[in-house]
Amino acid sequence: MAYDEGLAHRLGEALGALPGITAKKMFGGIAFLWNGNMLVGVIGDDLIARIGPDAQEDALAQPGARVFDFTGRPMKGWVIVDGGAVSEDDVLEDWIGRAREFVEALPPK
């Protein structure tokens, strides 16, 4: 499955100055890990974001967001956001911020 390389590039640019960021091919797309923990990524044309279970209800109320059920089982604390909903840089930055808020509290891997 191909992924939106433009969205991946935008994520890479937005995360570039953050120490501990690495990119890894996952889920048929690309994931950006922070200190070894999955942060955000791209599957197909969509953004995936690890926002944590406590933030999921609010995240799912945002435009274009839906439950991440890549394996056929919903993954609590993760969302998929339609690529069209993150076409503006400020919206993409908001999703990155949501993911950072959760992932920065995790221990490094």
Q: Helicity range of the residues?
A: 25-40%
Distance between the termini: 27 Å
Residue runs with pLDDT of under 50 for 5 or more positions: none
Write down the overall geometry: globular
Describe the sheet with the most strands.
Answer: 6 strands, antiparallel
Based on secondary structure, the structural category is: alpha+beta
Q: Please state the CA-atom Rg, rounded to the nearest Å.
A: 12 Å
Give your account of this protein's structure.
The chain is of the alpha+beta class and 109 residues long. It is 28% helix and 28% strand. The chain has three helices and six strands, in the order αββββαββα. The chain has a six-stranded antiparallel sheet with strand order 1-2-3-4-6-5. α1 (5-15) crosses α3. The radius of gyration is 12 Å and the shape is globular.
